[in-house]
Amino acid sequence: MKISLSFAVVVGFTSSIVVAEEPLKVRWSKEEKGIQVANNITYAVAGGETLKLDIAKPEGKGPFPTVVCFHGGGWRFGHRTDTGSFMRRLAENGYAAASVSYRFMPLHKFPAQIEDAKTAVRFLRKHAGELDLDPDKFAALGLSAGGHLSLLLGLTDKSAGFDGPLYPEQSSAVQAVVDFFGPTDLNLYCTAEGIRDSFMVPLLGVKCKEDPALVRKASPIHYVTKNGAPTLIVHGNADLIVPIVHSEKLLEKMKEAGMHVEMLTVPLGGHGWSDPETRRETALAALKFLDAQLKGKK
User: Fold this and answer.
1) φ/ψ (deg, to 5) at 5
2) Which residues contact 288 (CB under 8 A, 6 or more apart)?
3) Are residues 126 and 200 in the same domain?
4) 3-state SS class at 194
């Protein structure tokens, strides 16, 4: 398979969020390939839902660079175990990695999802010492809707209004982003009738034309500045769910802003891919990028 790679040196809380301030209790289990895994760690309670994450890390002494993973599912469904294979593969390659659950629409409107993502990052930083994490080397990795959240993590700071009251002494910033086919400009969905009615209205709680400012607020592309985290974009050029124009527009804007951005285009790739060789090549590209951004920097 031939993959094209382009380079440029240039992912307020709507409801109350609480968590008990108790000592973190983590039960690690040993798995194959020299990794340890801990499941069902509560990082917050939001909108009446208990939010959990799983974490894997190498055996041995850290602290380890950390990748926070977010699953896809159109902001409506999915589970953190969907990124479990990423989490374990990262741990096998010297990273600590967490797979995170977040609130779903239509019960929870945007920005609940990115608020949860930022809370999870701050929680992990707060407990970096206990979990053997390097608090200065965090990345976000996401697929589809999770890619959208990862991009928002990499592009926004507190001025966006997505940070909440928990762990305020901790930063939600990430030092790198790997975005697998995430939506970047939600205005593109506002003109597609099926997606607009099935996804945009439940996510935003209003019709696009009724609140264009909210559509803009939910779109990662509108937060691009030269200060954005270095980003790797991975997208198939035959994706019918999130057309590659989302990533192409983001790539162009990031280059113009002077960000470090790389894009990996998967020929004939749809919305995700089951071909083992494609999965292997894209995973290796993600690892190479993360190694350069997190392991290669002091």
Assistant:
1) -130, 120
2) none
3) no
4) helix
User: What's the CATH number where 239 sits?
Assistant: 3.40.50.1820
Same domain, yes or no: 82 and 194: no
Flag the least confident range among 5-9, 42-46, 256-260.
5-9
Give yes or no for a contact between 154 and 118, defined as CB atoms under 8 angstroms apart: no
Helix H or strand E segment including 178: strand 176-180
Q: Are residues 206 and 279 in the same domain?
A: no
pLDDT band for position 161 (50/70/90)? very high
Q: What is the reported pTM?
A: 0.92
* Tokens coding 115: 């608020």
Which residues does 62 contact at the CB level (< 8 Å), separation at least 6? 96, 132, 133, 134
CB 117 within 8 A of CB 70: yes
Total of domains in the chain = 2
pLDDT for res 11: 34
Write out the residue range of the structural domain in which residue 290 sits: 4-182+225-295
Q: How many CA atoms lie within 13 A of 284 on its CB side?
A: 7
Average pLDDT, whole number, for the chain?
91
Q: Does 209 lie in the same domain as 77?
A: no
> In angstroms, rounded to a whole number, what is the distance separating the alpha carbons of residues 133 and 124?
8
User: Of the candidates 148, 150, 149, which has an alpha carbon nearest to the alpha carbon of residue 140?
Assistant: 150
Taking 70 as the threshold, does the pLDDT of residue 12 lie above it?
no
